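Q: Sequence in, structure out?
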Amino acid sequence: MGEMVTFPADGGSSSGYLAKPANGSGKGVIVIQEWWGLNDNIKGIADRFADAGFVALAPDVYDGRVTTEPDEAGKLLMALNIPATEVKLRGSIAYLKDLTGGPVGTVGFCMGGALSLFAACKADGDVGACVDFYGGHPAVTYDWDGLTAPLLGIFAEHDDFVSPNIPGYEAALGERGKRFEFTTYPGTHHAFFNDEHEDTFDPAAAADAWERTLAFYRANL
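A: Exactly. Output:
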């Protein structure tokens, strides 16, 4: 359904996968990859957003590198240059905002969930709604004061990587009066939305989280 595109990024350029609905227009959503890279799973999620009426752009934060090996994915995650990634995310948000004519949504999964929230905190009002699917990255910190968009956090019950951080997030957001809604799905594990991993995929939770995400964007974009 979609195609690879190139967009400006702070004097340079970056690339991503762009998917549009059949009528060619809609609200914009930035879809941010897991630690595996911009693979067919993430492109497929962008296509699903397009089927639901959104214009979806999945920026390639690894510059073409994709893996199926956890050890390699971990190395790519740890080697990620956060300032350079911020430039790419800012560029993708600006490009999609210009394309769609309004503030965009961000969503990401695992590493991408952390980057979704990170980007929303740095967006200067260009992000109208942020969704974080069990996001985490050891080098990413959040400028909570800079977050202007409402936040939907989607988490797994059994997730030692991310779930221990939730109380701290709630405290930081609450004391600043930020708009947020957190949902933790009972019995689920990290990456329960990814249907390529049978050991953690939870069809019922994934379906509910998808509908919750669409409703959140429709209400806030």
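The helical segments are 40-51, 70-79, 82-100, 111-121, 166-175, 203-220.
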